Input
Amino acid sequence: MIISYVVTTACIDCKYENCFEVCPVDCFYEAANMIVINTEECIDCGVCEPECPVDVIKPDMIDVAGMWIALNQKFAEQWLDICQKGDPPADVDELGQKTDKLALLAEAPA
Amino acid sequence: MPLDTSKGDHDYPIPAGVFAETVTSVDHYTDRLFKFRITRPASFRFRSGEFVMIGLPNAEKPVFRAYSIASPSWDEELEFYSIKVPDGPLTEHLQKIKVGDTVLMRKKPTGTLVNDALLPGKRLWMFSTGTGIAPFASLFRDPETYEKFDEVVLTQTCREVAELRYGQDLVAELKDDPLVGEFAHGLRHYCTVTREDYRFQGRITDLMSSGKVFDDLGLPLITPDTDRGMICGSMDMLRDTKAMLEQFGLIEGANNRPDTFVVERAFVD
Output
């Protein structure tokens, strides 16, 4: 049973920012180079999942979601609620394809 | 914040970012299903097929649940179609509402079951089970749906015949509606029941794989050349129906990248 959705690796340094616009409960929080979901506020409606062009949002019941549930919740509590869509970086398409970006995650709030 | 003192157990402040609207009608269909209509805030705009978060002013931090708006975008009121869950945090109380009561609604409508998320096509298939018919009740009463598609086929599957009533009443009323009645000829309504005798029985996915639904309606098999799909029901029904549409060659779309079918779970609580 899905309890929440989570944002995963490919968002780091990418941030298309299509996701939070469709969220009915405004549970997306952002920092310098990533967006996360507050897993306690998420109502798992699933509307955000197909909106991300790079497919980084996953339901929490899949295997790879494990560590991302804790990471999403931890940073959602520290970062700011995202409500204004900014411009994604110029090389967003290329950045979205890169894997293994966890080391690049900037943890400080924006 | 305004204090709502209209009811003894509802004197909590209305949360910020939330509309407080008034119930204008309530109709119970079975011991599990009911419909209610509320006033519509002047500034509130939405696309037919979207949902909102609904709650009651009965706590400091009220419980909100997602409800598809069952009325079309042009309606002056808002309609919702709900299940009744005996100990459900919201519906335990929501099922008791009366005309004049206050209902809370968060301001942001959203959803995937919208005409914008589909590429143009000849025929729109709407697959629903139970209260999953609600977003389609909005879409099939919206002239925009008939501008986009020549034919609209609504499939409604419930456990029992009595549960089909909401959809059947709406389709019958549609034909006489002064605003949208002329479009009604584009709508086909295919009802099936899974637990009782009825002229059409079984799960819609079984009826598609056997071909019976196409035979019954006199329609060709679904193809991405002409057909588009919207699915709203339980998680199991979504999974199975999505797999069936993908077998027919359709691809899942979204608001920012329209394609040939879209999916949304029917919210139950």
